[in-house]
Every structure is written in C-alpha cells, then in structure tokens.
Amino acid sequence: MADNKSAVLVCTCGKQLQLDYELIKNAVSKMKLAASVTVHDLVCQEEGLAKISELVDKHGGRVVIAACTNQKIQPRIDEHLESNGKDSTQLQYVNIREHSAWVHENQDEATRKTIDMIRGVLARSAGSTPRQVEKKDVPSHVTVVGGGIAGIEAALSLSNLGYEVTLIELEEELGGHVIHLPVVAPTGKSGKEILTGRLDALQKNKGISVMTKTRVKFVEGEMGSFIVHYTTDENEDEKTIETSAIVMATGFREFKPTMMDEYRYGRNPDVLTQFELSCMLSEGALARPSDGEEVKDIVMVQCVGSRDEEYKRDCSKLCCTFAIDNSLSIIERVPDAKIRVIYMDIRVPFEHEMIYKESRDKGVDYIRGRISRIWEKDGKTHVQFYDSLLNQYFEITPDLVVLSSAILPPEGTRELSETLGYLVEDDGHIKELYGKLRRNETRRRGVIAVGGVTRPQFVFEAVTDAQAGALMLHTELQGGSIEGVARGAVLDVDDCVGCSLCAQQCPRGVPLMIEQTDKEEEDEEQKFIFIASIDTLLCHACGVCQSLCPTGATQLNFLSNDQLWSEIEATLEDAGPDYPITLCFYCEECSVSTIDIVGTRKMNYPASTRLIPVPCAGRVSIIDILKALESGASTVMIAACETDRCHIGGTGNEIAQVQVDVAREILTAIGWNGERVDMFRMFSAEPERFTTAINEMVKRSKELGPTPVHKGTSGKWMEASK
User: Fold this and answer.
1) Would you give the DSSP letter of residue 87?
2) With the C-alpha atoms ordered 657, 663, 668, 669, is the resulting torsion angle positive or negative?
3) Which pLDDT does position 132 carry in this prediction?
4) Distance of CA 179 to CAs 184, 215, 408, 639, 691, Å?
5) Which residues contact 630 (CB under 8 A, 6 or more apart)?
6) 521 in a structural domain
7) Per-residue pLDDT tens for 311-356?
8) What is the domain-level CATH number for residue 464?
9) Are 98 and 600 in contact (CB under 8 A)?
10) What confidence score (pLDDT) does residue 396 get?
11) Rounded-to-integer distance, Cα 300 and Cα 326, Å
C-alpha cells in the first residue's frame, strides 16, 4: 500500500480562498493513501513549481495537486516538469477553488467538500501508472480524393509540408466546377485564371501523382496504414494505394430540377441551370440552345430546390452570388441585355454585397416574387411570375430562363462513409467533428473533409479549408513519425470476446476488428473469429469503448474501472441518510468549462455535491452510476456537452444518454426511483445550465429521501417509483 501513496500539495491561491486549511491538512494527513501534505500559497509560481518537482522525485511521480482549475495550471506545470526531464503523467488535480471555495458561502461545508474530493483523487492516484512516450513510423503519404479547387489546394499544401500525395479525380480533367466559372467573385478573375497557377504547380511537382478517370471503391485500415481500393475507366481491375491519411475533397453537385414540372427543365432547351450558363459563358458561346439565336432577355429564378422540404431544406448560400456573377458577365458581353432576377431573398455575404450593388447599378432588375409557370407557345418560352411588391402578375417571353439550383453533396458520399467511417449529415454532406472548433476533422481519425463536400463554400473558403485540412493532417502525422504520450484505451486481447461494440461505437473509429486466421483452438466453438485491436497512440481517450465493453477488456490507461470505482467510494465515504450527496460526473470539455465559469462568477449552489471529472461523458457506464448509488450517493448526474457538440467525436454524449436511460430503467425495475439519475447538457456560454441542473438533483435527493442503501434495505424492493 505504501507504494500507492501520493503526496498532496494544497494551494491557498495567495491566501485568497476561504477554506480551513488547518483542518484540510489534518484530515488529509490521516488518509491512508496520503504520503505527505503540503500547504503552499502559489503552486503555479516558481517556488511552487520547484516544490512539485521535488515531490515528483520523492514519490515516484504520484502527486495530487489541490488548487485552481487544471485548465489554467496544468499546462504550466507540465511544461516545467517536461523541461526538467520529469514525468508529469501521474499528476492528479483537484479543483478546490472554482469547484468549492468560490461557490459555497459556508466555509465548513466547502472545506468538507474539499476533503472528500481530495480523498477521492488520492484513490484514483493510487491506481495510476506512468505513461510512456511512444513513436510510430508511418508512410509520409496522403491520398486526396477529388480534383477540384479544394483537392488541388490540399495536394499542393501537403506537398509543401513534405508529403508524397496521390490526387484522385473521377472526371477526365482537374478543376471541378471552378474551371468553368466565367468570373469568381470578388476577384474579378475567371475560374481558369485562378486555377492556372495551381495546375502548373501540380504538373511540375514530382511529389504529386495525379490519377484522373479514377473511382475509389472502398478503404480499409486506420491512420498510418490505410489501403485505398480503386478502379479506372480504362481498367476495371481493382488496384490499391497504401497511404497514411485521406482527404475527402469531392466538391458538390448542382441540383437538376427535372422533376419540378413548373420549370420545364429538361423539356425546354432554353431553360438552364446557373452552372450550365457558366459553362456557356466560359466557352464564349452565349446563344439560345434551341435555335442558336442571340440572347437579349434573361430571367433568373432563385432558390430552385433550396429552402424546400422536398429537396434541400436550407439556403444553398452560393446561388445568389452565382446569379450576380453570371449577370455581370452577360452585361459585359451584351451591354443592352435585359436581365430579371426573381427572388425571395437575396443573400450575398462578405464582399459580394459590392457586386450586388454593382449589378443593380448596371441595370439588373431584381424582382421579389415567385414564378407561377413556364410554358412554350409559338416557338417562344413564356414565363408568368408574381411581383410581391407590386402585387401583380406579369407575363414575359425571355430568350433564356436560368435556374439557380440547390447545391447538393456529391454522389457516392454515403457509400464511401461505410468504409471510411465518417458520419454523414441528414442532407448528405460529410459531418465535421465539431462545427465550431474542429472543422475539417471527421469521426474517423486520419480522414479529413475539405471544401464543398462538407457544406456549400465560396472559392476562397474552399481554398482556406484545404490549407487548414493539410495543416490538421500534418499535426496528426508529424511528417511520418507519430510521437506522443500513449494516453488512451489499452486492450487486453485475452479478455476480448469479439463483440465489436468498441469498433461500432468509437466516436473516432480507432478500434479495428482483426480476423484471427492463425489462432488455433482445440474447441472451434470457443474460437473468436474476430478480435479487437486498438492503437493507443491513435486513441482520443474518450473512454466510450470502456463504458460499453462487456468484459472490461478495453480500459483507459489513465482511468481504469478500478481507479474510477475507488474514487467513487472514497469520495462518498461520508455520504449517508443524514447528509445526502449528489455526485456529478462531468466531461473535461464543455462541462468543465461551464462549471469553472460558474466558479469564476461565484454562482452559489449547494455544498452537498461532489464532482468527478471524466474525459468524456461517454466514459460513464451503467455500472459506474450504480456503483455511485451503492457507495451512498443520493442522486447521480452526468454533465455533458450539448447535442451535436461533443468535442471528442460527436457521439460520446449520446452514448452517455443511453447509459443513463438504461440505468434509470434498471433502478425502476428493482424498486428504486429512476429519477435519482439524470443527464444534463451544457456549454460554457450558459453557466446557469449547470447551477439549474445541480440544484434540481439536490432537490430530488431531499424529496426522495434516503436510498435503500442508506436504509439497509437495498435489494429488498423497498422503494417504489413514483
């Protein structure tokens, strides 16, 4: 047991915290897992850092630091220790400032809570082990799928960062949609002009292999060892590329409204889409498709298929700008052309507002209204539209009708997701890991998405997106030599039963199921055909696999089941019917920021609460929840990221919700009240969410009274659910 003891360093934050430090020191010194207790005024300053370094040496790295939020002090402490060649991986932190002293007015209650949380973290620390720096050499090669502006920019950026790149394009030529644009706002240049320099650089770059008329069939493997299977138009035989990472840059497709009879698209040759008009203008052939006559009168119709529940529910963002660009291009060629743009709303962000103003100044007529119908008569195209400002219907006979069609994700995106492992939005675009802070990343580590495949983007946005994606991969691959502290899930192969829950539910797609072709078993019925494999160096350390694993085969190397259960028991050591405690598991992303801001703002909430950090809400299992109740908690809550805002991978909070729902059902089934357990979603912009949630759980603990554990009747079906 002596080997498991930890030194405890308690900070007074410059003697500013209203806690009974003498009581804390005496209480902690009597704890069996405390090797020593030191009270220091400023652990984050030079003297304090030197003291931490001394304690790390003396106690084999096991030190518990009770101070302010680790979001503030941990980076500084880690940097100090690492710069002096010392191991910081076993340090544990207790936030006694934002989570205790600053949120509870009663000093005795705040001190009691502080002591309990230190006891809990000492138990966690007792089970800690040092984590080693590991290195993994991988091919310095990236495959870019899609040869539009985003794919080209990503390939060039990755090449400049030192990677070999294979650029795969489905069509015969590179350039995507951009190469056909007569003008790209707000540059005033054509798409060909913008691409010329990049295409020249691509051709001269010996580190980039370009494969056109090539289709990716499927992908297998993981970051550092992906295998891309593909075919070409010339040869249907399947071939492969070994690569370390994949960039999805497959762009977008324009909606073809053939099923919308009111527009006559596909039936009347003089009804075009904006992109078809762009191609016509780029080729210098502005003529009426039906008879080759000159074009003088054009009607453009906005939002065709966009903002429509049947096709695309939201705005396509680009259509208004495309219409304005094409209008100005037509006026440049045919100064006396009459152009009407029929719209519901004109949406032109950024500098595009200036070209909108320019188009109005040059005579483009913007009519707020809707198209009623389009028909052909006497060899002419007739259009009836409603002007909502004049409250009148008008009928005209334009030379061209141009439809600003919706921008949709490319075909094949969902099919590739089955093997590439990224998630797909309801509208078919690739789902980014976290739209606010982790764009480009996808659910699958080593697979990023850039450009129009994630959402409609202007050209300059797609270029920036591609550059950001390249840097993101460079951060991951580190030039082909991935090195870092192996902090994550570790798998005990002997305990794995091949259920594949980890591989199915991992938010980042890290676990792989490996076929056991060489494994010999005396009894074939006892042989598991597939066994999981987890590369700890690639793991994002959320713990979802651990919470779902039925045998405990996979566990985080910094928060094992035994560590968490020991912490729960130690934290709740004094819980009982006379002092009902609400235990809160909180994720170390949105929730910890929310709770820290609650502390910074000194927003009070009951002191009969105890907080335990977990890397992600998805780390908390049904067993963890039941362990908390078994150890004496009156109510248990999980504080998690908001819906679709889970930083780890987008699904950890949803998995946690399932765990909570099942735990409530179990409690109800055995005669407890399921309302003793709940989950709350929050983010730091609204700290009131946390105070409201924890006040609610404290209220329930009082209203529901002692649990069957407190009464000594646990398992005897004594508590009836309401």
Assistant:
1) -
2) positive
3) 87
4) 10, 21, 19, 49, 54
5) 709, 714
6) no
7) 998 999 999 999 999 999 999 999 999 999 999 999 998 888 899 9
8) 3.50.50.60
9) yes
10) 96
11) 10
Shared domain for 564 and 708, answered yes or no, is yes
Which of these three, 363, 391, 406, is where a domain ends?
406
Torsion of CA 516, 517, 522, 528, to 10 degrees: 30
Q: Is 3 exposed, middle or buried (0-12, 13-18, 19+ CB in 10 A)?
A: exposed
The set of residues, in sequence order, having a beta carbon less than 8 Å from that of 270 and lying 6+ positions away, is 288, 289, 290, 381, 399, 400, 401
Q: pLDDT tens-digit profile of 214-234?
A: 999 999 999 999 999 999 998
- Max CA distance (Å), the chain: 100
The C-alpha angle with vertex 54 and arms to 615 and 125, in degrees rounded to 5, equals 30
Is pTM, for the whole model, over 0.90? no
Inter-residue contact 682 to 631 (CB < 8 Å): no
Residue 379's closest CA among 290, 272, 266, 261? 290
- HEC profile for 417-442? HHHHCCCECCCCCECCCECCCECCEC
CB 595 within 8 A of CB 690: yes
- Under 8 Å between Cβ of 28 and 82: no
Same domain as 577, residue 639: yes
For residue 270, what is the DSSP state? T
Residue 108 CB contacts under 8 Å (≥ 6 apart), including other chains = 20
Query: Could you count the other beta carbons within 10 Å of the beta carbon of residue 461?
Result: 19
* Torsion 312-318-324-325 (CA) sign: negative
**Bridge partner list, 11:** 40
Token representation of residue 215:
């289709």
Q: How far apart are CA 511 and CA 153, in angstroms?
A: 31
If you average pLDDT over residues 15-37, what whole number do you get?
96
**Closest to 153 (Cα-Cα) out of 188, 201, 113, 117:** 201
Q: Are 557 and 537 in contact (CB under 8 A)?
A: no
- Helical (H) or strand (E) element with 491: strand 489-491
pLDDT at 671 over 70: yes
Residues 506 and 621 in one domain: no
Residues in the chain: 722
149-160 and 459-477 are packed helices; what angle lies between their axes, rounded to 10 degrees? 40
Are the C-beta atoms of residues 539 and 612 closer than 8 Å to each other? Answer: no
Look up residue 189 and give its amino acid.
K
Q: Please tell me whether residues 563 and 680 are part of one structural domain.
A: yes
The letter for the amino acid at 13 is C
* Nearest Cα to Cα of residue 380 among 244, 270, 247: 270
**Same-domain pairing of 649 and 668:** yes
Calpha distance 430→674 (Å, rounded) = 37
The CA angle 667-671-676, to the nearest 5 degrees, is: 45
| Other beta carbons less than 10 A from residue 312's beta carbon | 22
In this predicted structure, the answer to whether residue 722 has a pLDDT above a threshold of 50 is no
Place of tokens 């209650």: 109
Does one domain contain both 265 and 231?
A: no
* Same domain? 395 vs 440: no
pLDDT, tens digit (0-9, with 9 covering 90-100), for 184-193:
988 889 999 9
Helix (H) or strand (E) holding 701: helix 688-704
> CATH no. for residue 36?
3.40.50
Q: Is residue 520 part of a domain?
A: no
449: in domain: yes
**Which runs of E-coded beta strand occur in 81-211?**
92-95, 133-137, 141-145, 164-168, 208-211
Domain limits at 43? 1-131
Tokens of residue 373, six digits: 């119908």
Give residue 598's Cα distance to chain centre: 25
Cα 430 to chain centroid distance, Å, stands at 11
**C-alpha–C-alpha distance, residues 420 and 548, integer Å:** 22
DSSP 98: I
Range 637-652 average pLDDT: 83
Q: Are residues 552 and 563 in the same domain?
A: no
E strand or H helix at 680, and its extent? strand 677-682
How many distinct structural domains can be found in the chain?
5
Please check whether residue 522 lies inside any domain of the structure: no
